Amino acid sequence: MNNAGPSDELNDRPSKQARIQSSRPVTIYVKKTEERVYSALCLTKFSLDGLKEEVASKYAIPKNMPVKLYKRTRKGLLIHMDSRMVEQFQDEDDFLVEVNFQNKEGIFEVTFLY
Questions:
Q1: Full-model pTM
Q2: Distance (Å, rounded) from C-alpha 65 to C-alpha 86?
Q3: How far apart are CA 81 and CA 87, in angstroms?
Q4: What φ, ψ does residue 106 adopt, rounded to 5°?
Q5: What is the pLDDT of residues 15-61, one digit of tens each?
Q6: Between these two residues, 12 and 29, which has the higher pLDDT value?
């Protein structure tokens, strides 16, 4: 006989946090304006650091080189990207990207154009 009450059954359910962490990877498509074909980036980590790793790998940016990610809106606003923005990506979103090296600061700037 099982003596577990209704409150015990609720505690056995996986938390919402656990389901989010086990979600499937999201694939986004990126290309520079001068490129003809999009490339796929598979995001397994839904964070700014995860996106930086994938972008650095795609565009041969050295791992020790700082990367800043921006979003340029249709209105022309330039926004620093954060992990919340990366979490909003949908599977098969597509972006034009601009990759620039800022020699004075020694960083790569990658801008996602929406």
A1: 0.76
A2: 21
A3: 11
A4: 70, 40
A5: 434 334 447 899 999 999 999 999 999 999 989 999 999 999 999 99
A6: 29
Could you tell me if residue 111 is left (phi over 0), alpha (psi between -120 and 50 degrees) or otherwise beta? beta
Q: Which pair of tokens denotes residue 48?
A: 């700014």
Nearest one of 47, 51, 39 to 95, comparing CA atoms: 39
Mean pLDDT of 70-76: 96
Q: Determine the Cα–Cα distance for residues 56 and 59; give it in Å rounded to an integer.
A: 5
User: And the tokens for 61?
Assistant: 């940016």
Residue 4 CB contacts under 8 Å (≥ 6 apart), including other chains: none
The 3-state DSSP class for residue 73 equals coil
